[in-house]
């Protein structure tokens, strides 16, 4: 797919302006030339459209979404393919992303007014109830996929003049396959994902209800229920930990609203609201109780901590910029990630990544210039999408390698911590931004120091070289999967310019593993590698099927936790359920044969016994 299709035409849609780019594709403000109607046109990424079975999934999901007709679901106008680009045209909503707005409020310590929160979430719940009855599950409910537009007239007396609109219905499933716990792409955002999806269990509309419950928690309290950075965090939090009481997080949350949130976020689907309509009715009841009991719809809450979306949209028309409508456009990491560029015989160079896309190559026009043999003028691109960095070969002559894998041209590959990109004589490492966890470090005066937040970072030009940090750790584990028992090796690299004591702790979410030691530590010198081995063994169930027990390796120093790595131990039961079934079948056959022999119906000979068994098996 071309970098930018602005001013081009796909069938009868003219693409006028690029308004967003995300993990699944780029979104353009366009116009339907036949109807002279504005539209949002999402052009899917080439790496998706080239996947086996994508065309069938795309058509199926687009058709299902196009059948939905609800005021809180973005309307689908058309889907098609032209000039090698797969696209979907939909309603251009004149509103703003709910995710964008609540991030602005979080910076000032404010929350949306309760009456507006109740209205918006109720509208989304009603939309989900309608869609679920039509057999369509969203699978990616989060604030970034909820747009808010202003109405001219309220649907009920005294209601705020707002309408929530859900986007990207069914598009999450276009990425293909089920949710996976290994190295595959994670479908959905980990902060909002349901327990059953994490566990790979069958899902229905109640999975969306759970995700909407998380959104409601965030809107009501101003923060997420769990602090999640990794897949291991998501499993531990969503599957095993009960959410905090919303009133304990934000005292002004009404008790009745708190109960709605906790019910929507129940771990077991049977304990949640069973339909979106049921949840919408509960929210309407809370709103009516607040209206009856208080003359002020925000009750006794601290007025200064409340913000109104209606007022914001009236006072600042720019908030309703339709360029913010796209749901899957991702913000940059909270603190800039860093590239470490190593060339043999030279001092490493560090680059702060402060925008969404970078070019790498020999030409001076690149963001990061790599002068060396086997480096093309425009060699590769680095792009931040789908909440992570991706490396793309830009058609180089000698290739771009991710570890030992040569990249296909113009195909985006996720670049994970610990992996190395090889371009000519250069080895390039991606290092995590220092504000990704609560124990944040700041990049100030070209060094990493403890205690602070992204807002305090001294401004740096995009990809500006910076000094190496005093402490920077990356790690990997091999193997990531053990069969019954074995050694898991943790390999740790110290990229800082001083010796560091690294502690590794083993997590056992299932409680079914035996480990030789819960924690181990190693001191690693500057630019040196350390190795820590753990012996793990899974407890075999007496009877049943094969089980897979997850484990986590937490990489810590005195300053912070640097990474959490996930692996699995697969175990066989002592007695397979299939063996039990076979034994029961043989017992049944022998019992039948014995009864017939004892009754004199068959003679007691090996041939007659064999024939009786065959006859019985054929009758099954």
Please tell me about this protein's structure.
The strands form 9 sheets. The protein has a 7-stranded antiparallel beta sheet, with no helix packed on it. It has a 6-stranded antiparallel beta sheet with strand order 1-2-3-4-6-5. A 5-stranded mixed beta sheet has the order 15-14-16-17-20, with no helix packed on it. A hairpin with a 3-residue loop joins β2 and β3. The protein has 620 residues and is an alpha+beta fold. α4 (114-133) packs antiparallel against α6 (205-221), α4 (114-133) packs antiparallel against α10 and α9 runs antiparallel to α10 (276-293). The protein contains 13 helices and 36 strands. Mean pLDDT is 77; it is low at 174-188, 294-300, 317-335 and 434-462. Helix content is 25%, strand content 30%.
Features:
620 residues; alpha+beta; seven-stranded antiparallel sheet; six-stranded antiparallel sheet; 13 helices
Distance between the termini: 56 Å
Gross geometry: globular
Rg over CA atoms: 28 Å
What is the tally of helical segments? 13
Please give the number of β-strands: 36
Strand order of the largest sheet: 19-18-21-22-12-13-25
| Overall pLDDT metric | 77
The amount of helix comes to: 10-25%
Name the beta content range: 25-35%
Structural class of the helices, strands and pairings?
alpha+beta
Low-confidence stretches: 174-188, 294-300, 317-335, 434-462
Largest sheet features: 7 strands, antiparallel
Offer a quick outline of the entry:
The chain is α+β, with helices and mostly antiparallel strands. A 7-stranded antiparallel beta sheet has the order 19-18-21-22-12-13-25, with no helix packed on it. A 6-stranded antiparallel beta sheet has the order 1-2-3-4-6-5. A 5-stranded mixed beta sheet has the order 15-14-16-17-20, with no helix packed on it.
């Amino acid at each position: 797919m071309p970098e930018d299709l602005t001013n081009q035409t796909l069938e009868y849609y003219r693409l006028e302006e690029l308004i967003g780019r995300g993990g699944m594709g780029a979104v353009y403000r366009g116009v339907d030339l036949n109807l002279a109607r504005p539209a949002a046109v999402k052009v899917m990424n080439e790496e998706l459209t080239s996947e086996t079975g994508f065309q069938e999934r795309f058509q199926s999901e687009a058709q299902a979404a196009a059948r939905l007709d609800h005021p809180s679901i973005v309307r689908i106008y058309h889907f098609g393919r032209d000039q090698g680009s797969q696209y979907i045209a939909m309603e251009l909503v004149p509103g703003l992303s709910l995710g964008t707005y609540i991030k602005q409020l979080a910076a000032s310590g404010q929350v949306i007014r309760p009456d507006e929160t109740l209205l918006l979430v109720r509208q989304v719940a009603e939309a989900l109830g309608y869609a679920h009855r039509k057999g369509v599950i969203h699978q990616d409910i989060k604030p970034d996929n909820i747009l808010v537009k202003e109405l001219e007239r309220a649907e009920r007396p005294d209601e705020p003049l707002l309408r929530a609109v859900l986007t990207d219905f069914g598009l999450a499933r276009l990425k293909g396959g089920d949710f996976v716990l290994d190295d595959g792409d994670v479908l959905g955002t980990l902060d909002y994902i349901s327990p059953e999806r994490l566990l790979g269990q069958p899902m229905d509309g109640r999975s969306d209800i759970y995700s909407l419950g998380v959104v409601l928690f965030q809107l009501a309290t101003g923060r997420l229920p769990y602090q999640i950075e990794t897949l291991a965090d998501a499993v531990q939090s969503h599957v095993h930990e009960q959410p905090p009481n919303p009133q304990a997080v934000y005292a002004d949350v009404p008790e009745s609203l708190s109960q709605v949130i906790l019910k929507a976020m129940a771990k077991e689907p049977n304990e949640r609201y069973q339909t979106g309509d049921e949840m919408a009715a509960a929210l309407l009841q809370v709103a009516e109780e607040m209206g009856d009991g208080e003359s002020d719809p925000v009750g006794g809450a601290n007025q200064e901590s409340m913000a109104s979306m209606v007022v914001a949209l009236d006072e600042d028309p720019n908030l309703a910029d339709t360029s913010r409508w796209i749901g899957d456009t991702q913000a940059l990491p909270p603190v800039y990630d860093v590239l470490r560029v190593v060339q043999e015989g030279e001092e490493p160079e560090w680059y702060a990544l402060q925008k969404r896309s970078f070019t790498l190559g020999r030409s001076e026009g690149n963001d990061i210039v790599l002068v060396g043999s086997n480096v093309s003028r425009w060699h590769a691109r680095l792009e931040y999408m789908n909440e992570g960095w991706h490396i793309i070969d830009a058609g180089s002559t000698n290739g771009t390698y991710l570890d030992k894998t040569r990249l296909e041209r113009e195909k985006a590959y996720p670049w994970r911590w610990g992996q190395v990109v090889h371009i000519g004589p250069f080895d390039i490492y991606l290092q995590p931004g220092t504000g990704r966890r609560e124990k944040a470090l700041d990049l100030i005066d070209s060094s990493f120091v403890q205690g602070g937040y992204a807002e305090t970072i001294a401004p740096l030009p995009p990809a500006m070289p910076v000094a190496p940090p005093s402490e920077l750790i990356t790690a990997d584990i091999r193997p990531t999967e053990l069969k019954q028992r074995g050694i898991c090796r943790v390999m740790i690299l110290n990229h800082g310019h001083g010796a560091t004591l690294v502690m590794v702790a083993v997590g056992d979410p299932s409680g079914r593993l035996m480990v030789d030691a819960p924690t181990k530590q190693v001191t690693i010198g500057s630019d040196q590698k350390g190795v820590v081995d753990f012996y793990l063994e899974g407890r075999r169930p007496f009877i049943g099927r094969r089980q897979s027990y997850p484990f986590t390796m937490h990489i810590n120093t005195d300053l912070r936790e640097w990474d959490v790595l996930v692996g699995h131990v697969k175990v066989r039961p002592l007695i397979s359920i299939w063996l039990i079934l076979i034994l029961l079948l043989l017992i049944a056959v022998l019992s039948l044969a014995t009864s017939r022999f004892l009754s004199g119906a068959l003679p007691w000979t090996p041939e007659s016994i064999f024939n009786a068994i065959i006859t019985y098996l054929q009758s099954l």
